[in-house]
Structure formats: structure tokens, C-alpha cells
């Protein structure tokens, strides 16, 4: 069995940021890994765009590939910049792009 070719996250980030800028909702997402319970998605958002509060996966992390985002949960928030990695809170949370931004969401679902 041959291993899949490596993904170029920089190229994927640029592609989806371009799509987000053209989208009426200011977002573009792409599932890049789906292997059993593991899912990884690239999510691009234009500045000011938000993903409203939603439930957390059993385990997950958010890595900022470009720009800056604000992760909110239970009345608190944390600003994250390109290159930073943060665990997803185990509670309802939301995400807002402070600049045009791209994140890599890693989630493990039951």
C-alpha cells in the first residue's frame, strides 16, 4: 500500500483564503484528513467572520496557519496568532477571525 502524498498546508491555506474572500459568508473549509475517528480540516475566514458557539469534539486542537483568531468559551477568550496551537475547550465554544485567517482544526470524534 502506497502512502498518500504529503499535503502542502501553505498552498491549501492560500487556496481557501481566496475562496473565503469570494464567499458571501466569508468562509471556506476543506476536510483534509478523515481516518477513522480522526478528522483534520482547514478553515479559512475573512476578518470579522465568526463561527458561532458550537459543541466541542471529545478531543481537539486548533493550529493557526495564517492571521489571528479569537477562541471563546464560557465567557473567556484567547487570541491566537499564526504558529500557535491551542487545545479546544471541552465545552461550547466559538471562533472569530481578527484578521483574514486560516486554521487547522484537528478533532477526534467517537
Give a verbal description of the structure.
- The chain is mainly β and 110 residues long.
- The chain contains one helix and nine strands.
- 13% of the residues lie in helices and 53% in strands.
- The chain is globular.
- The two termini are 27 Å apart.
- The relative contact order is 0.26.
- The model has no long low-confidence stretch (mean pLDDT 92).
* Number of helical elements: 1
> What is the count of β-strands?
9
Radius of gyration, rounded?
14 Å
Strand order of the largest sheet: 1-2-9-4-7
Helix content: 10-25%
Oligomer class: single chain
In terms of DSSP E residues, the strand content is over 45%
Based on Cα principal axes, name the global outline.
globular
Order of helices and strands: HEEEEEEEEE
Question: Key terms for this structure?
Answer:
110 residues, mainly beta, 5-stranded antiparallel β-sheet, 4-stranded antiparallel β-sheet, 1 helix, 53% strand
